[in-house]
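Researcher: Sequence recovery benchmark, item below. Answer with residues only.
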């Protein structure tokens, strides 16, 4: 698949989506804010770029399966609206707001969101799952915390919120190292 670009119109399952802004580039794909029929949505294009710290099977199938597992666990996530296996594109509900990453970077208080992520972590653990607790994966909208990624994995103690995710939910050495290594996030 060729990479998509902002300002491009993409035809997915009989609808046209105008890509307005790149929201993020993660391990699994590129997420764009897009417009279709006057509504804002997220269009995620799966990519097959190498990732030296994470092993994937079929990313597209994983997104769909993980979405169902997160729903069953009761994790607050955006609705999956469409999936196009031929183009490896997923259309999701758009949740407006700032990321927890932005709040931490800007020194804003996240105490109430820490309580919410800990509740999500407990729900995930009770279903035998870990979610990706990196703070770019969480949006704050109307004082609610949304997990906007669909990635989840079998629960492992080393990757739970307390042992891994919490390292990035405050101004820690790990958070500052990440900022230093990714100056575009400043």
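Model:
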């Amino acid at each position: 698949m060729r990479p998509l670009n902002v300002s491009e119109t993409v035809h997915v399952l009989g609808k046209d989506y105008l890509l307005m802004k790149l929201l993020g580039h993660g391990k699994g794909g590129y997420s764009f804010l897009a417009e279709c029929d006057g509504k804002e949505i997220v269009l995620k294009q799966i990519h097959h770029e190498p990732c030296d710290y994470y092993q994937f099977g079929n990313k597209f199938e994983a997104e769909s399966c993980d979405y169902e597992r997160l729903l069953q666990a009761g994790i607050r996530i955006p609705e999956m609206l469409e999936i196009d296996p031929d183009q490896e594109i997923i259309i999701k509900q758009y949740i407006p707001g700032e990321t927890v990453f932005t709040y931490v970077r800007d020194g804003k208080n996240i105490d109430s969101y820490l309580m919410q992520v800990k509740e999500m972590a407990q729900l995930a653990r009770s279903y035998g799952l870990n979610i990706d607790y990196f703070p770019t994966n969480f949006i704050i909208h109307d004082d609610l915390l949304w997990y906007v990624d669909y990635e989840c994995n079998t629960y492992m103690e080393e990757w739970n919120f307390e042992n891994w995710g919490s390292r990035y939910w405050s101004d820690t050495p790990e958070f500052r190292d990440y900022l230093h290594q990714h100056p575009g996030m400043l």
